[in-house]
Write a structure and sequence with these properties.
Length: 265
């Protein structure tokens, strides 16, 4: 690992200003994705801007029909939060299934979505719930946030401050995790709102994506039976040492039915 300068600003504005001054700096949240990247020599930033002293970014609260989760909220805080359990229990459950206890105690919502791992869990929630990402300078709709493999709409020095999740009538997440890493081989989140159903898949492609065919099938009949016979093509899905594209297509159907059953229960 190469040497780097370390900064610990006290506010979001200071953090952004610090990053702007660096030739090649990076924000550091829980370090659960960034530190392995540094150790492997896959990135050599000149500066790390730690967000750990900016507690305002860890706030979790309800605001009318939205749940607002600060970027620095850890997976464990989201999992245990009474507000999250009361408003979007499916999101609390999703956070509780990320990695292991150590990862959940350090890893954060903001770090997860900024990293945009194609097998991460939160991207499915951002898409299925139609969330909005609040940064230091704008709001980005969830559908526009994930651009590709480890690629988002964020600018180099843009700080995720919070994610605004509309509160659905019902939602649930079902994941078939890798036995080794716990990352999703396939994860499916379904959410029913008064205006329709949203279904998002993670782990199966270069980035999380919505599945309009499943959304239409569930719109008139929000039950696992509505998904019987709905074809899920394997074309374009990931194929690797853990699972073929065909197997992932099959898993999408199984996880979608499990998620709907859990949400409808
Ligand atoms: C063993 C292991 C198992 C895991 N299993 C899972 C799993 O099952 N499911 C899953 O979803 N994830 C899993 N993860 C990843 C984990 O969830 C990470 O916590 C997450 O991907 C990154 O969050 P972080 O806070 O640690 O971010 P960091 O590692 O600190 O940062 C990651 C990236 O995001 C940027 N960043 C961080 N915060 C912000 C911000 N607020 N604004 C802008 N950019 C920011 C950083 O500059 C960096 O580029 C696992 C990780 C490990 C090590």
């Amino acid at each position: 690992m190469k040497n780097f300068a370390f900064h610990r600003p006290k506010s979001a504005a200071e953090a952004v200003a610090a990053l702007k001054r660096c030739p090649d700096g990076k924000f550091l949240a829980g370090g659960q994705s960034l530190l392995p990247v540094l150790k492997l020599g896959m990135a050599e930033p000149s500066d790390l801007i730690s967000l750990s002293a900016i507690r305002e970014l860890a706030d979790i609260r309800r605001d009318g029909d939205r749940l607002i989760v600060g970027a620095l909220a850890t997976h464990d805080e989201v999992h245990r939060s009474p507000v999250v359990k009361q408003t979007i229990p499916g999101l609390a459950a999703l956070a509780g299934g990320i990695g292991d206890a150590q990862v959940r105690n350090r890893g954060t919502l903001g770090g997860s979505i900024a990293h945009a791992d194609p097998a991460a869990d939160y991207p499915a929630a951002v898409l299925a719930l139609g969330a909005t990402v609040q940064t230091d300078r704008r709001r980005i709709g969830g559908d526009d946030f994930f651009r590709g493999l480890f690629e988002t709409a964020l600018e180099r020095d843009e700080l995720v401050q919070a994610v605004h999740f509309p509160i659905p009538e019902r939602c649930a997440y079902a994941k078939f995790g890798s036995p080794a890493s716990k990352y999703a081989l396939v994860g499916v989140m379904v959410a029913r709102f008064a205006g329709g159903v949203r279904v998002a898949v993670t782990g199966a492609g270069p980035k999380a994506f919505r599945l309009p065919t499943l959304e239409s099938a569930l719109a008139g009949n929000f039950s696992p039976a509505a998904l019987t016979g709905v074809a899920i093509p394997a074309q374009g899905l990931r194929s690797d040492m853990e699972a073929s594209a065909d197997y992932r297509a099959h898993l999408i159907g199984v996880m979608a039915r499990r998620a709907v059953a859990a949400a409808a229960a």
